[in-house]
């Protein structure tokens, strides 16, 4: 699995580089590394739902995550508050950028996330993460500020990454089909 992840990370790194540095002209290497790692991590669906409630049940909605992101409610420490907000930022950026067509289902009327604006919440969560600018978090805090301020650009870049990988998959399938059919 490790070598597959490294290959996947290399693929995502190349696609992120093309989408962000070349197409969008946002050549922020720290952000690009972060987004490459995010895509690699979220390729494993269990990483999307890595947060759990006190009963061990995966948190599948932002509304549930917000409870555990507040020290006055469910967060047991400031570290947990920061990590949950980071995950909320990642989660909302992933869905709004990579799979925006899933948003109507994620925010359906009977779901807790019905009234949550994923873009607004993602920006706010990354902004809150950026406020933790001490100790081990000092160096990456400004990056989260940039992600908050450029959330929509990051969404656009991630969608471009998805389009590129889908095109690569289609081209690969067509090459395979030609070989199988003898063309």
Describe the structure.
The protein is mostly helical and 183 residues long. The protein has one domain. It is built from nine helices and no strands. The relative contact order is 0.13.
Structural class: mainly alpha
Gyration radius, rounded? 18 Å
Total DSSP E strands: 0
* Topology as a string of helices (H) and strands (E): HHHHHHHHH
Main pleated sheet? none
Count of individual domains: 1
How far apart the termini lie comes to 34 Å
User: Helix segment count?
Assistant: 9
Task: Set out the fold topology.
Elements: H1 2-23, H2 29-42, H3 45-48, H4 62-67, H5 78-97, H6 103-106, H7 118-130, H8 141-149, H9 151-181
Key descriptive features of the protein:
single chain, 183 residues, mainly alpha, 9 helices, globular
Describe the structure in brief.
This protein is mainly alpha-helical.
């Amino acid at each position: 699995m490790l070598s597959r992840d490294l290959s996947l990370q290399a693929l995502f790194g190349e696609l992120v580089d093309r989408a962000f540095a070349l197409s969008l002209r946002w050549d922020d290497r720290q952000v690009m590394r972060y987004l490459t790692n995010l895509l690699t991590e979220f390729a494993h669906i269990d990483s999307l739902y890595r947060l759990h409630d006190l009963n061990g049940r995966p948190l599948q909605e932002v509304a549930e995550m917000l409870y555990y992101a507040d020290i006055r409610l469910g967060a047991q420490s400031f570290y947990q508050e920061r990590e949950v907000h980071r995950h909320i930022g990642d989660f909302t950026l992933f869905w709004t950028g990579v799979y925006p067509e899933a948003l109507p289902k994620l925010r359906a009327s009977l779901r807790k996330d019905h009234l949550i604006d994923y873009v607004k919440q993602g920006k706010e969560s990354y902004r809150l993460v950026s406020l933790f600018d001490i100790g081990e978090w000092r160096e990456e805090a400004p990056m989260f500020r940039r992600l908050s301020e450029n959330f929509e650009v990051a969404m656009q870049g991630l969608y471009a990454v998805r389009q590129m990988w889908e095109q690569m998959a289609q081209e690969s399938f067509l090459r395979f089909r030609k070989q199988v059919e003898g063309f």
